[in-house]
Amino acid sequence: xxxxxxxxxxxxxxxxxxxxxxxxxxxxxxxxxxxxxxxxxxxxxxxxxxxxxxxxxxxxxxxxxxxxxxxxxxxxxxxxxxxxxxxxxxxxxxxxxxxxxxxxxxxxxxxxxxxxxxxxxxxxxxxxxxxxxxxxxxxxxxxxxxxxxxxxxxxxxxxxxxxxxxxxxxxxxxxxxxxxxxxxxxxxxxxxxxxxxxxxxxxxxxxxxxxxxxxxxxxxxxxxxxxxxxxxxxxxxxxxxxxxxxxxxxxxxxxxxxxxxxxxxxxxxxxxxxxxxxx
Length: 279
Description:
By secondary structure, the chain is α+β, with helices and mostly antiparallel strands. Helices cover 33% and strands 23% of the residues. InterPro entries: FAD-linked_Oxidoreductase (IPR050416).
C-alpha cells in the first residue's frame, strides 16, 4: 500500500440552514463536474434531517490538502451563509476531535453512485422528503445523507498507477457517491427503517434511469447487507477477484467472516456533534 506525507491542511465543518440547499446543490454539481477538477480539493455535502423539528440543515465538510486557506476552488461553498463555520488550517488529529461517538445506537448504511447531475441531486432530496415522514416516530433517529465527489481525475490517477478492480474509468464521467447513515435506539424499529430506506434507494435508481445518470458501482465500505458491490465491478473484474480468492483464500475467510452491512453499535459522524453545537 502506498503512503504519503501529509502536512497541515485546510478543513473543518460549515453548517447552513435549508434555505441554501439548492445553492449548495448547484455549487456541488459545478464543483464535481468541473473539467479542471483540483485533486487537492473535496467537499462532502450532508443533508441532515432533524425529526424533532421536522427540519433540515446542510453540513459541509470541505478540505484542501495543502496548507492554503480560502482556496478559490472551494470559495463558492465557503461563501454560503452559515450558522457554524470551523474551517481552519490544522491536522487530521485535530479535525477528528469534531467527531462525536455515541455507542449503543443501531445503525444502517446504504450507498449508490450516479453521474453528477443537478437534476439528480434535486431528485434525491425529493425522494428523501417522501421517505422521512414514515420514520418520524422512530426512537432516537439520526439521519444524514452524504454526497461525495468521485471525479474523473481519480480514475485517471488510478489508470496511471496500473488500473483498478472496481470497474471505474474515465468513460464513467464525473460521479458522486450517495451514502445514507441512519441510527436509532430500538431493535423493534429495524424492519421499518430498513424497508423505508431500501425503498428510497430503489426510487433513487428509478430517477437515475429516467435522467440517464445510472452507474452500477457500489462502494464496498458503505454497502448494506443486501447490496452487491462486487457485482457492480463488472463481470471481468468479478471473475478476476473470484480467481484471486480461489488461489489465496480458498476457505473464503474474508467473505464468510465479514458478511457485509452495518446494523451495529456505532455513530461516528460529525452531524450529531453538530446538533449539540447549534441546539
